[in-house]
User: What shape does this take?
Amino acid sequence: MTTSEVSAREYSAIFGPMFSHVYNSVAFAEFNSAKADAIRYLSIVDNKPRCGIIFGERQGRLISGFSAPFGGFDFVKKLTTEALIEAVGSLTGFLKGMEATIILPPEFFDASHNAMLRYAFICAGWRDDALVNNHFDLTRGPYESIIHGSANNRLHKSEKSGAIFESVSLERAYKVIAENRKMRGYPLAMSLDEVIATAPLTKTRGYVVSLDGADIASALINDVSDDISQIVYWGDNGLHAEAQGMRLLAARLYELYRKEGRRCLDIGPSGTWGEISPMLSSFKELVGASTTLKHRFTLSQS
Assistant: This one.
């Protein structure tokens, strides 16, 4: 196989019908082009195109997932392990003399293909870093069937508090998230204007849990692919802590997206690369989340 650079239009024509997820779309890359020095579209072919990848270039380093939680490859159709080894080998040769980072979607997107890709990267000499990532498997049945013991008791307490779950504007949901990050001393990667501007591409929706007229917890959620949605931000602001708004939020989001026919709801990482946040991981597992890994592959030039 050989790797070559193509235009945005050519890439979209080849892979547009088969984009792996919204963050791999040409429209998303071009929308975020100001966050990179350049956007590079690569196509890997033998007798015809087999797969492609979009990089954002920053100070000479190529990053797949440069403006999103993850990036990775697009495929005309799924490849065998042997073909993936050849494709990654071709890409690695093309990148000779450059440094690159590729963040794959979490394993649950497609566990088998993800494992095949990871093996191909390892064979080509890329370094693998892992990040604990959680998701709701919406195929497991009703929400109350996936939580047990104290988690059930806390949910019932939240339900009896009088708290209300509802779909709201992005502005209203974002306000609670901003309060949460300020309270915890964490930065917000996206401004409200950026969330609103990106929403038509990512089909972002906002939700809140409120009590006595005050919003106490919220979430912003993107539709990432045909059957997977992703909680981009969620959190509470410390108001009415006794109502345990996050418990009710988790339950209602699970049921809402399950009834919409989604397969999974990605609720994001529990820590940083190579380091878990025990408190965050524990909370997500208690509210019924499953755990897989997200992988970041790095090519360094010695």
Remarks:
- The chain has a mean pLDDT of 95.
